[in-house]
Amino acid sequence: MEALMTLAADPAVWAALITLIVMEVVLGIDNLVFISILSNKLPEHQRQKARRIGISLALIMRLVLLSTLAFIVGLTAPVFELPWHGALN
Hints:
75% helix; mainly alpha
């Protein structure tokens, strides 16, 4: 609990959270515009279904990508090494 309070008091954490929220809003609006443009090309009776499926898939994909990113950030041991790692020094 103390670690959570330390994070809540850190301005860098708040800046990162605000940045993520703004990015999610922008990506959400972008998804809405893109899906509405594509769904308007469909016949009238298919538009609502296409919008629901498109928004649902966009949400699921975003959650999967965020979960994958959280997993990658939590890694502490190298997963693989590049063969030219020593040559760059």
